[in-house]
């Protein structure tokens, strides 16, 4: 009787484990599809808060952890928040845009301080610098302070990714503006580049900022 019970429990365990494996395999495919689709949706509708979300089939959502998606999703959500802050509209001062820019700074700073790949952290540093440049238009008396901080962000991006062309351009622009700010109080009318590099084998959303 004991042997029969043991076989029954073992069979039940194997059945449950097999079902869990099948659900995890299904979630892997669904995540791959979801990320690809939502990266495309992001370009058309960045304000969609349902991007890069999926209800897992497997219990306790192990697939996201097993695939190491947390870092990729964190960057995408930081990028989305950055875009919603309308950084290209430097003088846009509505409460919602300012709030999104503040949130983006926090999310990007977390990525910069994380253990993510150097190119991802370089992208985060570059975008942080862009947000500081935007702040110079909103708070002109503190422009020199923001420009100095932005220059440090761009330098850090270049240290992490020496070929980061956007960070190099932005650093040059920032130093020119800082020189004008300190000598004449002037400012260049050029716009910073917040473009991000590619990561994990695929171009990240938001390229070209």
Give me some keywords for this one.
two-stranded antiparallel sheet, 7 helices, 2% strand, 209 residues, disordered C terminus, 2 strands, mainly alpha, 67% helix, 2 domains
Describe what this molecule looks like in 3D:
There is one protein chain. This protein is mostly helical and 209 residues long. It folds into 2 domains: 1-67; 69-198 and 203-207, no CATH class. Helix content is 67%, strand content 2%. The chain is built from 7 helices and 2 strands, in the order αααααααββ. It has a two-stranded antiparallel sheet with strand order 1-2. α4 (95-112) runs antiparallel to α5. The chain starts with a helix and ends in a 6-residue tail after the last strand. The relative contact order is 0.10. Mean pLDDT is 79; it is low at 196-209.
Shape annotation = elongated
List unreliable stretches of 5+ residues: 196-209
How many structural domains?
2
* N-to-C series of helices and strands: HHHHHHHEE
Across the major sheet, the strand order is 1-2
Number of helices: 7
Q: Report on the biggest sheet.
A: 2 strands, antiparallel
Taking Cα atoms only, what radius of gyration do you get, to the nearest Å?
23 Å
What value does the average pLDDT take?
79
Count of individual beta strands: 2
Helix content: 55-70%
How much of the polypeptide forms β-strand, as a percent range?
Answer: under 5%
Instruction: Give the structural class.
Output: mainly alpha
Distance between the termini: 70 Å
């Amino acid at each position: 009787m004991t042997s029969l019970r043991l076989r029954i429990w073992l069979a039940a365990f194997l059945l449950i484990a097999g079902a869990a494996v099948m659900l995890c395999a299904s979630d892997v495919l669904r995540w791959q599809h979801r990320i690809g689709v939502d990266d495309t949706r992001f370009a058309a509708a960045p304000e969609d808060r349902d991007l890069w979300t999926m209800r897992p089939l497997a219990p306790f959502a192990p697939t996201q952890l097993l695939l190491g998606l947390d870092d990729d999703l964190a960057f995408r959500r930081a990028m989305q928040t950055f875009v919603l802050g309308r950084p290209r509209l430097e003088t846009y001062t509505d409460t919602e845009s300012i709030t999104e820019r503040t949130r983006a700074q926090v999310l990007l700073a977390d990525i910069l301080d994380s253990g993510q790949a150097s190119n991802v952290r370089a992208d985060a540093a570059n975008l942080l610098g862009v947000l500081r440049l935007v702040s110079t238009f909103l708070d002109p008396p503190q422009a020199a302070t923001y420009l100095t901080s932005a220059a440090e962000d761009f330098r850090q991006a270049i240290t992490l990714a020496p070929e980061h062309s956007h960070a190099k351009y932005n650093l040059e622009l920032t130093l020119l503006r800082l020189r004008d700010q300190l000598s004449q109080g002037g400012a260049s009318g050029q716009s910073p580049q917040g473009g991000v590099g590619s990561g994990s084998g695929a171009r990240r959303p938001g390229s070209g900022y």
